[in-house]
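User: Show me an example of a complex going from sequences to structure tokens.

Assistant: Sure. Here are the input components:
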Amino acid sequence: MPPFTFTIDAECPATRARAGTIQTPHGTIQTPIFMPVGTQATVKSVSPEELHVAGVQIILGNTYHLMLRPGSELIASFGGLHNFMHWDGPILTDSGGFQVWSLGHLREVNEEGVTFKSHLDGSVHVLTPERVMQIEAELGADIILPLDICSPYPCSPLDAQKAMESTHRWEERALLAKEHYNPEQTLFGIVQGAFEPELRQQSARIIGNMPFPGLSIGGLSVGEPKAEMWRILRYVTPELPREKPRHLLGVGSPEDLVVSVGLGMDMFDCVLPTRVARHGGLFTRNGRVNIKSACFRATHGLIEEGCDCYTCQNYSAAYVHHLARTEEQLYYRLGSIHNIRFMLRLANQLRAAILAGTYPEFRDEFLAHYIPASEQIREEQREKWKAARQGQAVASTDEIELLDG
Amino acid sequence: MPPFTFTIDAECPATRARAGTIQTPHGTIQTPIFMPVGTQATVKSVSPEELHVAGVQIILGNTYHLMLRPGSELIASFGGLHNFMHWDGPILTDSGGFQVWSLGHLREVNEEGVTFKSHLDGSVHVLTPERVMQIEAELGADIILPLDICSPYPCSPLDAQKAMESTHRWEERALLAKEHYNPEQTLFGIVQGAFEPELRQQSARIIGNMPFPGLSIGGLSVGEPKAEMWRILRYVTPELPREKPRHLLGVGSPEDLVVSVGLGMDMFDCVLPTRVARHGGLFTRNGRVNIKSACFRATHGLIEEGCDCYTCQNYSAAYVHHLARTEEQLYYRLGSIHNIRFMLRLANQLRAAILAGTYPEFRDEFLAHYIPASEQIREEQREKWKAARQGQAVASTDEIELLDG
């Protein structure tokens, strides 16, 4: 039996949504799926057992962070990331490309690869497509990604094309290099092309036809308006082979999940649910609430009535508010668990709707009630996080997460 | 059946150690027992379920902190602290006296009670013996303490006597006031007298003869050398009635537990195990190790071989080291759980030794292997925590804990 299979369980007749099943060496994943991010070999504040209870089926690890601390050789000496961090389900590791791109002036790209300075201690490191395959083999995730170049937003068409073409060459090199390592690992391809429809279509066709069992869409959710991301996805999906799962890298929010599923995406990862939770933002079917708000001070009810997460099953909104206001560490856990469970429940609901043939109705109903954080609030948050990052030499939790995308 | 009973299961023939059983409305406690501190309605980083798994039988809540945030009336509206924080086992609340004493220039004592300014916002509050009974009734703990005056170390004999005599008068008022509130709650008396043997003996006789079902020894572990604390305990215990449980307030470390049990103490509470864990200090049978030390970077083994805590059952020392070094929130949880389990296991072992008639051997064996943090290191840590406290207006985790003692 091959280490990786993807079968389509149902397709929406009216949209591009589909429900599928992925088999990996560490278990089955039912799509659409949201993958919480475990940047430094831990999903911040949450234990592996709690992830399982929240319905998590696969998590994402960050190659960039893990190669710097504690180092991929050390993790390999433990038999890989699964054993090291005590998570027995599937793992996907990214390539580090996005984080290196985020380092800005600390990195330099040439045809061979990328040279960068660590955000931790300024030490110099070189990543090439081949070296990334070696590191990801040491980490031992079920699904791995090749080194790519993530263009900024905005970006000139010529720069976008050059970055895309380099990425394509790097992906060919990654495919060749991967043959030296563990055949139990599955290498996805990455589609780039910035915000140029023709480049995106070209990248989707080229990478879609290469022998990658799955495809990640990179270079989106990098600061553009949401409408722009959705516009690009409408060009990409029709060019992708139907039989390969599609991972939308670094996305996203609840509304992103609901909309992007209809545009043909199967897998999602993002730090947003856990990051906004740490800042007090908790998801409900009507949108994000700020649990630190005085309105929750005496609320005997739950963060969201009917929620089946550990937090809502055991604690009042007033207690969660109290922990958040007093900055108690238990708050970060309870808030993160609530938002992770919200995302996984939403993915389950999307799957059920697709299987029942009612995805469009589910999407419209969800979007009619869910008030997303406005673009302006999102932009302000991003600026605040960036400022926090520039203001200190040592990496803070949010700086580290900025690098996750 | 009375809400509170204490029965002695065994007494050591060679020392003053005893093993007992306490019944409370929320369950049974087997002594000797260590009580983790839940300052702000949460034992920092650890969930109620994890406390149960670690063998915790009773926790301590801080009246001072809870009256300020979220307020005792709010907690009362939830049916008390048990419901509010989702802990169904026994709880002991202190009186706030120790914290108010710690506020230094922010408080003023007279015969009526104590006036103080909140460390959070400078707001003025008055605590009297009667008001404390009302607040503790609202919090609803199983065991409650009366307002007392904790003398500093060192302290003149005259000041020590005046503080003790005021405390005695306040305790009489507390007993009277308590009659207006929930008879399911049990009020312990507090023995004071600073470091004057005669005052301590006098206080033990007076408070021991008042109708308190249990007794707390206050005013120790306030900066004096350990030998001084033990010297005082040797005067106190013989004066205490045998049939009442004895709680040594704000103590302590593993070695404190082992020694103090032999001096006749039954119950202990302290933030030390969770606080030192957060700073990297983890307990082993050979003493405290610093998990951040580079020597653990590649340790495939456990923090302590044979340890039955959740952390050691599931994670290598290298992984815990990695989380501590990267300041991941999961570290604070895993470290705290390890130290809490260490303290509860130690209490179990002490009990088993007393029941088996082998307490002196157990004590000597333990102390022969366990290397305690030196007085000098302890003093430096205290100074660091104090400096951290003075350096900032807003309460940090450690400042809040300083106020816990």
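The lines above are the inputs; the final block is the predicted structure for all two components together. The first helix of chain B runs from residue 48 to 53.
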